[in-house]
Design goal:
Layout: H1 9-21, E1 25-29, H2 37-44, E2 52-59, E3 65-71, H3 78-85, E4 89-91, H4 94-101, E5 118-122, E6 130-134, E7 140-145, H5 146-153, E8 156-158
Parallel strand pairs: 3-5, 5-8
Antiparallel strand pairs: 1-7, 2-3, 2-4, 6-7
């Protein structure tokens, strides 16, 4: 289910993927940007920890796409992420992110990517029944049940926050 105004193409792709998966969700478009976790939390009226940050990394040996699904208030421990992957990683540049996911940085959702990434989910997100993630643009967010987030991403729940 989506609110007006009409969804942009990248948000429609998220909407269609979620509808096909049969999960309960809500996409919201906003005038203001939800590019940062703090902006998204203020926009939807939830704690920053309930916001999903979708961060893309690149395996330095395999060139695999790695998606770190982090709680909004957390930074990702790149060494822990690399250990989970089994190889060194680096932050992906904007071109790699667009090519691999089909989305621009700031609007990357945790699903419906051009190339399926290896996914690791921040254990801290599991403290919430629902979370809010980017829905394809910096001005759109999607509400998902945390259990659905785990299922639809096939992500591994892990301790990936930087202490």
């Amino acid at each position: 289910m989506s609110e007006s105004p009409p969804l942009k193409a990248s948000s429609r792709r998220v909407d269609e993927a979620l509808a096909a998966l049969g999960v309960d969700y809500e996409i919201r478009n906003h005038e203001s940007s939800a590019r940062s976790a703090e902006e998204a939390a203020a926009t939807v009226g939830c704690p920053v920890g309930q916001i999903v940050k979708s961060l893309i990394f690149r395996g330095t040996e395999s060139d695999r796409t790695v998606l770190a699904v982090a709680s909004g208030g957390n930074r990702v421990n790149e060494k822990a992420l690399a250990a989970l992957l089994g190889e060194k990683i680096q932050r992906a540049d904007a071109d790699f992110v667009r090519r691999q996911t089909g989305y621009a940085i700031g609007g990357v959702p945790p699903l419906a990517h051009v190339h399926e990434p290896v996914v690791f989910i921040d254990r801290d997100l599991m403290a919430y029944d629902t979370v809010w993630a980017a829905a394809g643009t910096p001005n759109s967010v999607v509400r998902l049940k945390t259990a659905d987030l785990e299922r639809i991403t096939a992500g591994q729940i892990a301790d990936i926050k930087k202490l």
